[in-house]
Structures are given as C-alpha cells and as structure tokens.
C-alpha cells in the first residue's frame, strides 16, 4: 500500500476504524489525525519529505558546540518485523567529532489534541564506552521570537538521560512544559516532572493538550499534569532528537548511541486516553496503512452529541452572532485574565499573535478560567461570543 493515502483512501480507512471510534465516544470524532509508522527506505526517500518530515541538516544547538546534524544519522531499519525510524548519535569527546540526529515535522501546525509516539530508549551505547550525557527525546516546539518571548511554546514529552546530565545522575526522565526562556544569561520559565528509574526499552509516550492542562503519560500511567501559563500558546512542530548535552563524562574513543521510533499519532482537538491511542494505532496497522493525514483536510472538530431523552419545552438558545465589544479591552498576551473576563481580539492566522491576522475581524471573547499568554481563537481558555 502507498505510504500516502489520498482523501478517498483516508475516508475508507477511517470507516474501517469504526469499531475504535465508537468505543472512544465523543473524543473519537474525526477532527483530524496524523499517523505514521515510518515505513521509509532512507532519509533521502522522497515519500519522507512528501509526508511532511525533515531530517535536520543545519548546525547549532542544543548540545555540544560544533557538532554535526546530518540527515544520514536518520535511518529506517526493521525491528521485530516492523520498520522503525532510528536516530544515531556518536562522539569522540570533541565538538568536531560529535554527531547529533533530529527528525521534525516540516509544518508548524499542531496545538491542542493528543500527541503519542512509541519510542525505544537505550541505556547503553551500541559501540564504545558508556557514561556519556546523552539526551533521548520526543517533543513539540515553536520558534522563540526573541528573549523571553511570551508566546513561545514547547512541550518536552520525554527527555531521557540514561547517564544523567545538567547536574543530575542518571537515569532520569523529564516532562517539561515551557512558558519562555532567555539564552544569555540563561533563564528558564518552565514546569517539569521527573522519573528517576531506567526506561530502557520500548514505551508508549502520550501527551494530551486540552482544557488548560497538559497531561503526560508513560505506558498508560499519568506522570505529569501541567497547567496555567505553561499551556501552549501557538502551533508547534513535532520532533525527535538525540544529542549530547556535553562531553564532560566521555571516556575512550568513539561512543555511539541509538533511539528508535515505531510510530507517531496526533489527534487534533481530542484528548484521547492511552487505551484509545493504542486502539487507533492498531486500527491503522490492521488496515494496512503506513501513513494517514487528515489534520488539515477536516478543518475542525464537532464531537458527536447524545440527543436529549425529553424534547426541550422551548427552542434552545443559539450562540450570539455578534458580540458587544464596547467596554471590552483589547487582548494583551502579557495580561493575566480571570474566568469571566472579556476581551476583543482578531485571532492570528497561524497561532502566532505576532504574525499576520486571520482576516476574520475582531471577536468578543470570554475567559473560561485563569489564563495568560493564550491567544483567543487558538486555545480552549477562551469562549467566542461573536464578531464585534
């Protein structure tokens, strides 16, 4: 089967998954999905880029200064009868002799919903001495538009350090939700949770972004619940990378480490349970699909509703078609708002308040609960009361 399913193929596939969507209830409405099990031949496979992935080739951070980021560090071997995406990183203890690896989504289009990936972490190198401060990751991220950018959004769904780093001994695994940071001098504004045990082997990593909370799961177990200003405020890319924090713990010649990824799933505007994630990925595979993407073609989400058992005695109230913006202030991303407060604002086109407007005009918005830095129209913190 082709790695890329056309619209008709996706529709057929989703119909074949009815048994899973029915079990998931309202959360399984087809608001848009991305699924990929990485059945590619190499980093140069044209289907890889056609399906929206970019192997990193540009220099820079994070990690060891002077390190190389090469597409050749991304390969697609077969493990257990399934193709997997493999990241390989190696170091000889010098910047020039260090190689990092990263694969990321070409488009910045992911915000609220469910992010999931089956990832194999490794505690020891495939060659050379052990002990390096290696970081094995799955994360989402937006650009930082200047120091302390209040719209910056990053969710480190897992950063696994089998040998420690950043002053910690390993193994340790982090989930980190970012508000913003400054590179020089370093200042970080984030919230994190951690697990201090080995994660060697395969694990299902899930993060849901909904209702003002980021909830992180490992193998079905809730390990973190972050909220408040750390809730993402703009669309992000999906990424995996494998890199050395530093070379302080390196010994001997060259050491080589790997990280593998079996599949990735994104469910737009839906908070799936880990069990629902497992069911949906199994459904794609049983249908013979290696890739499906309806994130943009569906355009939104209308969860199914259960009709009332007794007809209403009066017609239901319809949402206002126009909001009274006379007394509402303009929304400001640096201002904290309490539940019930109203603002007027024209949402941005791409989820970046500093970017171009949507062209939809200003709307009146009401905060559902405390919020700061979350743009109306892009996050669930705000209820649309109609155009001004």
UniProtKB/TrEMBL annotation:
<protein>
    <submittedName>
        <fullName>Glycosyl hydrolase</fullName>
    </submittedName>
</protein>
<feature type="compositionally biased region" description="Pro residues">
    <location>
        <begin position="304"/>
        <end position="319"/>
    </location>
</feature>
<keyword id="KW-0378">Hydrolase</keyword>
<feature type="signal peptide">
    <location>
        <begin position="1"/>
        <end position="28"/>
    </location>
</feature>
<dbReference type="GO" id="GO:0005975">
    <property type="term" value="P:carbohydrate metabolic process"/>
</dbReference>
<dbReference type="InterPro" id="IPR036573">
    <property type="entry name" value="CBM_sf_5/12"/>
</dbReference>
<dbReference type="GO" id="GO:0004553">
    <property type="term" value="F:hydrolase activity, hydrolyzing O-glycosyl compounds"/>
</dbReference>
<feature type="region of interest" description="Disordered">
    <location>
        <begin position="292"/>
        <end position="326"/>
    </location>
</feature>
<feature type="domain" description="GH16">
    <location>
        <begin position="21"/>
        <end position="272"/>
    </location>
</feature>
<dbReference type="GO" id="GO:0005576">
    <property type="term" value="C:extracellular region"/>
</dbReference>
<dbReference type="InterPro" id="IPR003610">
    <property type="entry name" value="CBM5/12"/>
</dbReference>
<dbReference type="InterPro" id="IPR000757">
    <property type="entry name" value="Beta-glucanase-like"/>
</dbReference>
<dbReference type="GO" id="GO:0030246">
    <property type="term" value="F:carbohydrate binding"/>
</dbReference>
<keyword id="KW-0732">Signal</keyword>
<dbReference type="InterPro" id="IPR013320">
    <property type="entry name" value="ConA-like_dom_sf"/>
</dbReference>
<feature type="region of interest" description="Disordered">
    <location>
        <begin position="340"/>
        <end position="364"/>
    </location>
</feature>
């Amino acid at each position: 089967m082709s790695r890329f399913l056309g619209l008709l193929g996706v529709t057929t596939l989703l119909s074949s998954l009815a048994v899973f969507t029915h079990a998931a209830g309202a959360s399984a409405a087809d608001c848009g999905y991305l699924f990929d099990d990485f059945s590619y031949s190499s980093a140069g496979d044209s289907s890889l880029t056609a399906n929206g992935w970019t192997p990193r080739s540009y220099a820079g951070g994070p990690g060891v200064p002077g390190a190389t980021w090469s597409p050749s560090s991304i390969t697609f071997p077969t493990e257990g009868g399934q193709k997997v995406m493999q990241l390989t990183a190696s170091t000889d203890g010098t910047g020039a002799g260090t190689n990092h690896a990263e694969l990321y989504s070409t488009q910045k289009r992911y915000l609220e919903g469910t992010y999931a990936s089956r990832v194999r972490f490794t505690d020891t190198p495939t060659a050379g001495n052990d002990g390096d401060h290696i970081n094995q990751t799955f994360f989402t991220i937006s650009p930082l538009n200047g120091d302390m950018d209040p719209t910056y959004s990053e969710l480190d769904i897992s950063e696994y350090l089998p040998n420690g780093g950043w002053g910690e001994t390993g193994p340790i695994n982090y989930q980190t939700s970012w508000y913003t940071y400054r590179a020089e001098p370093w200042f970080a504004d984030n919230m994190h949770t951690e697990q201090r045990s080995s994660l060697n082997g395969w694990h299902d990593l899930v993060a849901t972004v909904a209702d003002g909370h980021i909830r992180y799961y490992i193998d079905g177990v809730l390990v973190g619940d972050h909220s408040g200003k750390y809730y993402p405020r703009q669309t992000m890319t999906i990424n995996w990378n494998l890199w050395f924090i530093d070379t302080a713990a390196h010994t001997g010649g060259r050491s080589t480490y790997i990280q593998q990824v079996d599949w990735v799933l994104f469910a737009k505007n839906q908070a799936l349970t880990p069990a629902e994630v497992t069911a949906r990925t199994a459904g794609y595979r049983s249908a013979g699909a290696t890739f499906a993407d309806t994130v943009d073609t569906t355009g939104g989400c209308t969860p199914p509703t259960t009709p009332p058992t007794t007809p209403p005695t009066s017609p239901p109230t319809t949402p206002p078609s126009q909001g009274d913006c006379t007394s509402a202030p303009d929304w400001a991303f640096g201002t904290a708002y309490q539940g019930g407060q109203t603002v007027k604002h024209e949402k941005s086109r791409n989820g970046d308040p500093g970017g171009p407007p949507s062209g939809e005009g200003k709307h009146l918005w009401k905060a559902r609960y405390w919020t700061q830095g979350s743009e109306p129209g892009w996050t669930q913190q705000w209820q649309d009361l109609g155009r001004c």
